[in-house]
Amino acid sequence: MNILKRRSWELPEREATPEHIFLNRRQILAGLVGGGALLGSGLGMRPAFAEDDPSAGLYPVQRNPAFQLDRDLTAEDVASKYNNFYEFGSHKQIWSAAQDLKIRPWTVTLDGLIDNPQTIGIDDLLAKMPLEERLYRHRCVEAWSMAVPWSGFALADLVRLAGPQTGAKYLRFETFHDPSVASGQKQSWYPWPYVEGLTLEEATNELAFMATGVYGKPLANQFGAPVRLVSPWKYGFKSIKSVVRITFTDQRPVSFWEEIQPKEYGFWANVNPSVPHRRWPQASEKLLGTDERRTTLLFNGYEEQVAHLYKGMKGELLYM
Ligand SMILES: Nc1nc2c(c(=O)[nH]1)N[C@H]1C(S)=C(S)[C@@H](COP(=O)(O)O)O[C@H]1N2
Ligand SMILES: [Mo]
Questions:
Q1: Whose CA is nearest to atom 6 of ligand 1?
Q2: pLDDT of 292-315, one tens digit each?
């Protein structure tokens, strides 16, 4: 009876509960082999975070006080062990598998309709960009949310570096493609590599951010190291991880999820509590790591910063 009554939108919550059990088991397991310090060597497991990241010395960076939260930060341990990163599996416990991703050397290619096409090493890029910390909410389309301190730089600064030409209307972002490291990419029914897109206007909005760190350290692999997009007024799937290419184009990009299921996932994907997903409501969200559910806010609470971008747009599915 319960099974029949259970709606699909409850899935994320159901997955969230077993997560605690998973963690407890892991801790117990660690205890059995003599403590957390052995996690890296015992049992063939890898440490959750790369200690040898060459950019470690850059963090922590100064917090930008313009970005305030209406809730507590999600605990680091919770946010780093509940991730969507389909390249490493279609479940939430990918943090361990994601440690296989080699994040040096790493280059980001800027190409398309720009004056300064280039392929730039991540450390050169980090040296060029003014880094800051921002506290942002993050709302997954699956109706869970978190609040995290990202470090990185405004996407607008990267756009300036690229020098868009007239005619450039969109940014098309692409994730790495390496099935030998990311076993999810061996699943050929997914349209790899992961692709996302923004309009140039969205990309130069003050909120659009490229994260290179989180919790005062370089990004751990599972968060999308070494550089990922953060567009907090949109559903989380827009915030593409481990970016290797940004193409400036006059064509609207078709994103990974849009290609898989265009009836459920569109280009705009702005958060709106009154527009349900086809299979579940979006009115509220579960705060990761707590028992709390909260009412979801229009544009995830960033209405003031972004609502003007969509004023007067007609015939667009802005909220899926
Ligand atoms: N390349 C890539 N980027 C991705 C995803 C993914 O599977 N692959 N998942 C997206 C989804 S659905 C969400 S909710 C966020 C999750 O980010 P987090 O794991 O840092 O919380 O990453 C987004 N970016
Ligand atoms: Mo998501």
A1: 85
A2: 999 999 999 999 999 999 999 999
